Hints:
337 residues, 2,3-Dihydroxybiphenyl 1,2-Dioxygenase, domain 1, 6-stranded mixed sheet, 6 helices, globular
Amino acid sequence: MKLAAQTTFRVGILLFALLYAANMPTLAQAPAQLAPMHVHHVHLNSVNPKAAAEYYPKPFAASATKTTFSGYEAVKTGNVYLLFTKVDTPPQTELTGPQTAVWHFGWNTPDSRKYNERFRAMGLEIAQMWDAADGKLVDLSSDALPGFPTQEQILELRAKGTMPSRQGGFGYLRGPDGALIENAQSGQVERFNHIHMYHEHPLCAMQWYATHLGATIPPAAGGAPPTASAGDCKRPYSPPTWPSFFKFPGFVRDPSGNVFFDDISISIRPWPGGGLVSTRGQLVDHWALSVANLDATVARLSSEGVRFLEQIHPWGNARAAMIEGPDRVAIEIVEVR
């Protein structure tokens, strides 16, 4: 009798455990550890590669040096290169053709306003922004009302007498071949720090970069876990705000985010409605990551269904392949042993 009672109790415990486990939420498995990738270069098309390469050390003398690399005119900045391919006709930019997924690239600077003043003294072209739908062109984001307000909020801020801070902020140069180059105040050292993308669904793109390329998604505000999960990555767009390159209707800033390869950010803003064209043949033709084992990386990406634009081929003294990422961005994978 006692043995039967013990058996019944144990069976009950087992059934309870099974039922409990069946109703527990399933925990997502951590992705397999991917071989590290590093931002290697940004590849631009240029009607005059030599002149283009000579430009960048002028605004960013502390971190950019003209050089050559793998047969290309080049700029070295930190561990990243800008490479230039000769083309016969000016490459299309967002001013002259359809938009691609690459918006711009840029540097962190210790004092964006002083840099901007120096750019003007050097005669470099500033790409200005509108500070409101009914406003004026300004050089820096801190010349506009604070907080990236909507037009309605701008009217409210004006009524309260709020003024621009004119401290820090970001601005842009219009460089060779129409390249858009950001000067963004952050830290105490001038350095190349980001490639800024447009994606129709930024959080989905972040997840793609993390899943296939091993990019790091930083914690959300307040240290919360990253929010770019595959199940709910399509979020509604926020209202347009200013400053903006578009006087009207302004600039849609959210949802947004970024991922990192080492200390280089792939920053992302939304492009509502999609329709971005391939980067190939445009001003920024592609950007590139380096890996230690190209064969293994190509095999893995192929097994994951990633689209290849170019299979493994010689690239200078090395080898490379080309894939297509979200919204038709071309990403080269270069082998660096």
